Amino acid sequence: MIRIRPHREADPAAVEALLDRSFGADRHRKTAYRLREGVAPLDELSFAAFDNGELRGSLQFWPVRVRPLQGGGAPVDALLLGPLAVDPAFAGHGIGMGLMRVGLRRARLLGHRLVILVGDLPYYSRVGFRREGAEGLRMPGPVDPDRLLVHELAPGAAEGLEGLIEKPEGQATLKVTETDLDNRRETLS
Ligand SMILES: CC(C)(COP(=O)(O)OP(=O)(O)OC[C@H]1O[C@@H](n2cnc3c(N)ncnc32)[C@H](O)[C@@H]1OP(=O)(O)O)[C@@H](O)C(=O)NCCC(=O)NCCS
User: Fold this and answer.
1) Which residue of 116, 117, 171, 179 is most buried, as measured by CB atoms within 10 A?
2) pLDDT tens digits for 26-46?
3) pLDDT digits (tens, 9 = 90+) for 106-136
4) Model's pTM, two decimal places?
5) Protein residue with its CA nearest to atom 27 in ligand 1
6) Are 55 and 15 in contact (CB under 8 A)?
7) What does CATH list as the number for 2-188?
8) Are residues 153 and 115 in contact, defined by beta-carbon separation less than 8 angstroms?
9) Closest Cα to atom 18, ligand 1: which residue?
10) 149 bridge partner residues
11) Are 15 and 48 spatial neighbours (Cβ–Cβ below 8 Å)?
12) 85 CB near ligand 1 (under 6 Å)
């Protein structure tokens, strides 16, 4: 029987092995990792799935913020969902969905308003992620824009939101200009 438990109960080495298997050992080169480097995941939102004590799934959230690029308003706090990974031998049993439902429910209860991720819309739309509302968001590196998705925990949280997704206050180390972002977008198209 699959049990969903707080992520801290998982063996960190088993988590790393699952993530390497799911995303490749070079996963740290992905843009999303720029937002995670040097920042701790949110313990209270992160969950793991176990079958007879064996790790079968892992979901963590990181804190981020959206900083308006053109002088418009204060940064907006958000969550970055992921990485989400499920042992391929246990795929299709609802583990991924189960982990997300638990994490998102907890996030809403704790008053978080907005969740962002990079992933496949057909999968994540099942738990409420969509592309609308993410059009004005920019990651600090190349991503496929069609895979940048948002989920409003508070209705309207993504409405009109534009800016650069970055590490939370005090942890932002990247200085990205709009010209950089335009160049990066060009390299993707
Ligand atoms: C994607 C992943 C998390 C799904 O986990 P899972 O526990 O097998 O998913 P669930 O059992 O909750 O959901 C399975 C359903 O989602 C569908 N699905 C799985 N991955 C999908 C994708 N990338 N796009 C669309 N649908 C997908 C399955 O076909 C299945 O559909 P069904 O219910 O109609 O049969 C898992 O396959 C995985 O770890 N993949 C490698 C890492 C990865 O891609 N992570 C997500 C990107 S951040």
Assistant:
1) 116
2) 999 999 999 999 999 999 999
3) 999 999 999 999 999 999 999 999 999 999 9
4) 0.90
5) 123
6) yes
7) 3.40.630.30
8) yes
9) 123
10) 117
11) yes
12) yes
